[in-house]
Amino acid sequence: MRNFAVPTKDQVSPVNQTIFDNLYKALGFVPNLYATIAYSNNGLSRYLDYQNAKTSLSNKEKEAVNLIVSQVNGCVYCQSAHTAIGKMNGFTDEQLLEIRKGGSSFHKLNALVALAESITKNRGYAHAHLVEAFYDQGYNNENLVDLILQISDKTAMNYIHNLTKVPVDFPMAANI
């Protein structure tokens, strides 16, 4: 398989160099997966706009979706990144593992995680009882659309890493 080196700032377009500077200011580093997206002159800005768009899901809900989708898709990079981000959003190690295993002890979050897992595993389809459980927990049509968009966001990143295998630059997530 082709070896994907992580591009450095001087190897990307001027637009992406500016984004690298902004990421460095905000995060203290440029994550390898973001840097890899910068192979595309427009991909990184397009992706970051999509990722940072407003949503009806809370940060914790987004991280729960990111974790279960990354688990289903076998993306070690995103499992690791979102374990770290999940901790920053208030999840415990136990809760993060629970989510990656497809559930949560919080009923509303459990319905979200179960539906996200089903949609991901079934390529856009889901078991009807999981959709009903999602609505029964107080979610609405806006939340369903935002869930699907969040799944698509994370699936794209999972696919990029699964094909490029760039080094993980976050603490490695536990194997489950």
Description:
- The structure is a single chain.
- By secondary structure, the protein is mainly alpha-helical.
- The chain has two domains: 10-51, no CATH class; 59-164, AhpD-like, CATH 1.20.1290.10.
- Helices cover 64% and strands 0% of the residues.
- The protein has helices at 14-27, 32-37, 43-51, 59-72, 76-88, 93-100, 107-121, 128-136, 141-164.
- The two termini are 26 Å apart.
- The mean pLDDT is 97.
Question: What are its keywords?
Answer:
single chain; 176 residues; mainly alpha; AhpD-like
What is this structure, in a nutshell?
This protein is an all-alpha fold and 176 residues long.
Proportion of strand residues: under 5%
State the distance separating the first and last CA atoms: 26 Å
Helix content: 55-70%
Structural class call reads mainly alpha
User: Mind describing the biggest β-sheet?
Assistant: none
CATH fold node name of the largest domain: AhpD-like
Based on the coordinates given, report the CATH architecture of the largest domain: Up-down Bundle
3D shape: globular
pLDDT below 50 for ≥5 consecutive residues: which ranges? none
Tell me the CATH superfamily of the largest domain: AhpD-like
H and E string: HHHHHHHHH
Number of helices: 9
Under CATH at level 1, the class of the largest domain stands as Mainly Alpha
**What's the alpha carbon Rg, rounded to whole Å?**
16 Å
User: What is the arithmetic mean of pLDDT?
Assistant: 97
